[in-house]
Amino acid sequence: MPTDLLQQIIWNIKIRRAPTRHDNVDFEPIITRTSEIMPLSVVTGDKGYDSGENHVLVRELLHRFSIIPTRYERVPIWRTHGRYRKQMKRGYCNILYSTLLYFQRNKDETIISAIKRLFGEYITSRLIRIQNRELSFRCIAYNTNRLTNLAINLMFSTQPELSIL
User: Given the DSSP bridges, would you call strands 3-4 and 42-44 parallel, antiparallel or unpaired?
Assistant: First the structure.
């Protein structure tokens, strides 16, 4: 679920019925579609997205910065394949910038928690396509709620300029 981490808005979503396969196969279509909607600056992912192809897609084709930690920490660097995966293994934990950006990924979990609090944890539909629609509508409703709250906060947070007599 690609999101804007500053405003906590969902940009794109991929719904899958059950965890029958890994999320890594959905990485390329979601990131390329999101980059067409909104310009990306940094792409963060958890260890499940650790792949040389994902780093190459983000860094060489989209010309952006990717922060995806390596899956197997105990494997030595010389046995790790891929230039960008070796970079992540060498400098991910030591670079303050990378760790601060990576921990912004926690806002994704905050968005999921907010959707569950606002609209409930359970899906009431029985058919799979209706369940997918229900989840999509919840994301749309969350974005509408979030944009409304941001607009209201912006309107009331600005103070009128004081005129000096």
Answer: unpaired
